[in-house]
Amino acid sequence: MTDNRRPDDPNDPLTDNPSESADRDLRAAFGRLRAETQKVDTMNALRKLDDEGRRNWLGFPLLAAAAAAVLVIVGVVAFTGDDAGDTPNEVITADDGAVDGAVTDPSPTPEGDAQSTAVEPDPTAEPEATAEPEPPTTEPEPTEPAAPTYALALDGSGLQLVNAEDGSIQTLEFGVATSQEVTRALDTILGEPGVTTPSSPECPNGAADDIVYADAGLSLEIAGDSTLLAWSLRPESTLTTLTGIGIGSTRAELDTAYVPDYFESTLGFEFSVTGLGGILEGEGPEAVITILWGGGICAFR
User: Fold this and answer.
1) Cβ atoms of 34 and 81 closer than 8 Å
2) Is 272 helix (H, G, I), strand (E, B) or coil?
3) In the prediction, which pLDDT does 1 show?
4) What residues are paired with 241 via a beta bridge?
5) CA 86, 90, 96, 98: dihedral to nearest 10 degrees?
6) What is the distance between the alpha carbons of residues 99 and 92, in angstroms, rounded to a whole number?
7) How far is CA 122 from CA 54, 117, 186, 247, in A?
């Protein structure tokens, strides 16, 4: 038998209609496009939910449930979209999300980026400590150096002022130092003012005044020209020479410190050495000094 049909005869039921085949292919393509678009929309929704979940961790169970539901919907849509070509009655309209082949942009919007990158401050965090400004420093005002402290020592040439800080010595010499210089220094060192009284006119040394420091047991004789003439100790005095000789020192101690001359006088057993003089209570080595002076005192022998 001879087959008289043309291969492209549209009325032949065994020959495929090109318009129907193209229509099926177009519907299948639109179904896949809608499925992909819904996937993108679903991913954007998940991203927003994830951002909200990060800002509030208490919403994590709700976020998990919503994500599970969305995944189920996406699976169903994807399954039906793949079979769209087998459903000849399905019509794709502009309301289904595809208009003239347009595809929804899956890229995040600027608002979404801002929401995902914004970090809220932690209310439980402690504020950073700030350094307190240091108060301005002021240099101390210059102060005058304190006056040196002196001690008084006796000597055959006068009175010695010993600097307690450096040990230097200043001597108020007989016949040189004035009564004002002497009293100004001794009033400070001894802590008491000297009392001035006239000397006896019968004194052979020509003394005009006596200055007495009663607490220290010290008497000074001032010449007519107001210079220091001599000094003498009373029995209660504790003043000494630099070598430690004073009232109560023994002859043995005196011989250790000096090389004195001894002699008998109307005053007693005297000694004399380099401007110093005095009276011992006896001649033995244990005899002590009872009177001590320096310079030319007013003495009647």
Assistant:
1) yes
2) strand
3) 47
4) 154
5) 60
6) 10
7) 13, 15, 79, 89
What's the sign of the alpha-carbon dihedral 222, 223, 229, 231?
Answer: negative
Phi-psi region of 141 (alpha: psi -120 to 50; beta: other; left: phi over 0): beta
Q: Quick one: 159 exposed, middle or buried, by C-beta within 10 A (0-12, 13-18, 19+)? A: buried
Q: Which of 237, 118, 216, 230 is nearest to 174 (CA)?
A: 230
Cα–Cα distance, 230 to 205 (Å, whole number): 10
Evaluate whether 192 touches 215 at the Cβ level (below 8 Å).
yes
Name which of 94, 101, 35, 42 is nearest 68 in CA terms.
42
Break the chain into its structural domains and give their ranges: 21-107, 150-295
**How does 99-117 read in b/e, with b if 16+ C-beta sit within 10 Å?**
eeeeeeeeebeeeeeebee
What letter would DSSP give residue 246? B
Confidence of residue 126 (pLDDT cuts 50, 70, 90): low
Looking at residue 232, its pLDDT comes to 97
Q: What length is written for the chain?
A: 301
Report the distance separating Cα 202 and Cα 246, nearest Å. 28
**Would you say 252 and 286 are in contact if contact means Cβ atoms under 8 Å apart?**
yes
First to last CA, the chain: 194
Scanning the structure block, which residue is given the tokens 């008491």?
Answer: 192
Which ranges in 12-156 belong to alpha helices (H)? 18-55, 60-82, 110-117
Q: Is residue 110 pLDDT above 50, yes or no?
A: no
Residues contacting 161, CB < 8 A, separation 6+: 150, 151, 152, 153, 169, 170, 171, 172, 185, 189
- Which residues, at least 6 apart from 103, have a Cβ–Cβ distance to it below 8 Å? 33, 36, 37
Question: Which has the higher per-residue pLDDT, 298 or 111?
Answer: 298
Residue 218's identity, in one-letter code, is: L
